[in-house]
Automatic annotation (TrEMBL), chains A, B:
Domain of life per record: Bacteria
Residue stretches spanning the membrane: none
Protein name, entry field: Ribulose 1,5-bisphosphate carboxylase
SUPFAM superfamilies: RuBisCo, C-terminal domain, RuBisCO, large subunit, small (N-terminal) domain
GO biological process, alphabetically ordered: carbon fixation
Organism field: Denitromonas halophila
One Gene Ontology molecular-function label: ribulose-bisphosphate carboxylase activity
Length: 366, 366
């Protein structure tokens, strides 16, 4: 019998917590009263078990619940489902952490990881610089021109905004080859190795079409939103299709009541993200310093056979924060700055300034 | 220019709400400061616009924001993304409602709807009865025997638990033909038309394999979890693959801070759900009466060209609640009871009792 140990935070009184935790253990496994579980094997080897309960502030408890790995198999969607599928509908519960005493579910993990991404991007040391193509609504020509400007400014990585899917103003099939060509042209001029990561989106057939366009254009990375595409689709792509690094975007993930370090750190890494975007503290989003550090830690801490992935703290970052962010995250980080550069009076100069500031930090800490 | 009008609930002070709503309008469209939007067309036709702001309780406001339909296209994932992708990461915001003054995005809606499901199940009037195959961990033989018992008891619809994916104890490829055969045998004996809805799960390749098994076994409906599979995958299935009704499960949806009537009512209906499971009030989940009524209303209210879908209030329902639920939801409802029947001393008798109670309500109200 193999189990995963899931720590839930539950709002309950001291009188109720034992029964509440037992109910949660059943909810996330057999989905019925214990009396309905007549098969001894199911009762012993599959029904969730409360392992420990401890206090966690006023009227809150932490309950560690063992869930059978056999209910998960090797499917990431089913992993999310067993962790929190039904319990997401019970507002008194959130998921804090998972431990894997009997081994991890069979998921691919990062195909490239920190070392593979560094090799692809030609950045052996120091922080990796990334910027975004925006705003949605721009023409293909405008986005390609912007990408060329960004590549010439020295960015290592350029990604689509996650709002750039397949709009009439810049259809994927026209946009991606044009942007890749602009980046290629800039690379030829500068001798750089800037990589463009288009945003995959839509149903599986749409994504397959986009992948063919990416291959044909010689794209060197992709971005995707695992919680919009479905984590199981991402796993199939990583296992069977993609031969470039994956940049994962956290869209839709903020409300899930799954701890950010577990969701964006451990789970995104397990499904194969090489780089994970998350809202840095002090930007447009509200994650605090500790949460951000925990996400970054979850991306690099030992996790079975899996390579470490790169944190991409983002969301309203500015060039002024380069020093602080390099000091905070260390050199294995992707610094993503988008809108702040585009809003500058002289965007090209702001881009160069950002890239130079990151390079200077690398020398300082190197 | 075509827009959708999204109503967000925002925690903010009266001094801050104007700036906060403006920032949200940009976040869910151009994702950058207004100063970075230099293209006049993008500024006028794509950048989100605050339409109205009103109070909504202490330190909370409702902001109606216009978002350009051209950023959504015909992709359901992108619709979720533009509604709430980034804003999900901002805990001061939730989504309450969407209005479509310029028309709906091009999504399939229910292929069968209330009338089509009734025809398929052979239930022209009255509440439809549904039960679940559980617990996960059971053998194929045990699940098939249970399905036969349920079909003989007179249930119109039998569904897999959403935790029953593709476990070693009952692999999809063995389970589905065996259960369908058991239901077919019972139908031959009873003259009934009970339909089995297996649970589709996993990545697109896995789902395609499961669909082939369903077709070969003559399955008459499917269940799926749109927020686990990815809504875009569901739309492709409904548009191009499925010729049976779709039962949608709300797994993972509870934490999203999207109003349940919008998410499980309008959005699940738009992507093609013919029947939508949601947590009924008074069960294991915490939705109140008003929320449940609003979900049911959203499934049947006028919505472009789309057929109405059936509400499936569920989650710890008991036979004793049949009368109340029939009175509350009217006859266009699927009454789903699972664990309570299996936990009874004599499950077969409890099943028959439930089916008879629903039939008696039909006569009473008919």
């Amino acid at each position: 019998m193999k189990w995963m140990h899931v720590t839930y935070r539950i709002a309950a009184s001291a009188d109720d917590i034992d029964a509440r935790a037992e109910a949660l253990a059943r909810e996330q496994s057999v989905e019925c009263p214990a009396a309905a579980v007549r098969d001894v094997r199911v009762r012993e080897a599959v029904m969730g078990k409360v392992i420990a309960i401890g206090p966690d502030g006023p009227d809150h408890f932490r309950a560690c619940i063992a869930l059978a790995l056999e209910t998960v198999g090797d499917d990431a969607g089913q992993l999310l489902n067993m962790l929190f599928g039904n319990a997401s509908l019970q507002p008194d519960v959130s998921v804090l952490d998972v431990a894997w005493p009997d081994g991890l579910p069979d998921l691919p993990g990062p195909r490239f990881g920190v070392a593979g991404v560094r090799e692809r991007l030609g950045v052996p040391r120091g922080a990796i610089t990334c910027t975004a193509l925006k705003p949605v609504g721009s023409s293909v020509a405008a986005l390609a021109a912007l990408a060329g400007q960004q590549a010439r400014a020295g960015f290592h990585l350029i990604k689509d905004d996650h709002g750039l899917a397949d709009p009439v103003s810049a259809p994927f099939a026209e946009r991606v080859p044009a942007i890749q060509a602009a980046v290629d042209a800039a690379n030829r001029d500068t001798g750089g190795r800037c990589v463009y990561a288009p945003n995959l989106s839509g149903g599986p057939r749409a994504v397959q079409g986009q992948l063919a366009i990416c291959r044909s254009a010689g794209v060197g990375a992709v971005m995707l939103c695992p919680l919009v595409l479905g984590v199981s689709q991402v796993v199939e792509l990583v296992r069977d299709e993609l031969d470039v690094p994956v940049l994962a975007h956290p869209a839709l993930g903020g409300g899930l009541r799954i701890d950010p370090a577990l969701l964006f750190g451990t789970l995104f890494r397990l499904i194969g993200a090489d780089m994970v975007i998350f809202p840095n503290h002090g930007g447009r989003f509200s994650y605090d310093v500790a949460s951000c550090q925990q996400i970054a830690a979850a991306l690099s801490m030992p996790l079975g056979k899996h390579a470490p992935a790169l944190p991409v703290p983002a969301g309203g970052m500015t060039p002024e924060r380069v020093g602080e962010m390099c000091a905070s995250y260390g050199e294995d980080v992707v610094l993503l700055v988008g809108g702040a550069l585009l809003a500058a009076q002289d965007p090209a100069r702001a881009m160069r300034g950002f890239v130079e500031a990151v390079a200077a930090e690398g020398v300082k800490h190197g």
